[in-house]
Amino acid sequence: SDHNLKYPVNPEEMDWSTHYPAFLDEGEELHLQSEIPTTPTSDEQLSKPESKVVRPQKMRKQVEVADIGCGFGGLLFSLSPVLPDTLLLGMEIRVQVTDYVTDKIRAMRKQDATGNSYQNISCLRANAMKFLPNFFRKAQLSKMFFCFPDPHFKAKKHKQRIVSATLNSEYAYVLRPGGVVYTITDVKDLHEWMVQHFEAHAAFERVGAEEQEADPCVAIMRSDTEEGKKVERVKGDKYVALFRRVEDPEEP
Ligand code: SAM
To answer: Residue 110: exposed, middle, or buried by beta-carbon count in 10 A (0-12, 13-18, 19+)?
Structure first.
């Protein structure tokens, strides 16, 4: 159940400064103690009327890339140097896995003598099937990754799949026109399901094979995700599909 998951009431309430301290707006000072704490809920804030609500600190950049169900973070670590000026966020529902990725990011940042590496990646615990618009504004994201999502093989479990008509509307909301959804899976049936649901959605069109293969993120998604490596070891197939968020039609 999700009742112990914490969400901001809206994107304005989300404090990213502890996730990406190197991207704090100049002039702002980091006043929080811990490096990457969980987000305070507004419920907590509201239940304590005497404590004044601390406005999140201003950031020079906003999160633009989301890795949905990031697992152990292989994609984040590899994309970090490829997109050095972009903030990337992994969202993961399993608490131990989220903690592992958070600790690894902290360690990798410390290890780096320049102090610049891995400052642009972070991870938080969330059920990405719910509340995405609590974290991200409309059209905030330029890329969303769905790497080896849980297949939920049985027909009666299909409604738990992370791609569906309803969820695709949420993804369309947080993605900017021109933004791209990246999908990869070793399960052919799930690949076909994702293609069918994105192609059926008016906000998305499939990206052509040539453009797909020229995109450096695609090679990384194939080779550097933990699941991608597993599938490689057993010489399994990997099915890739990309979908562009199209412009909304003009209002009449
Ligand atoms: N993307 C990683 C990779 O390619 O190696 C991990 C793939 S793993 C098969 C699927 C991951 O999605 C798991 O870590 C699981 O905990 C996470 N997950 C499943 N449902 C989720 C949800 N609703 N929100 C966030 N993460 C979820």
So the answer is: exposed
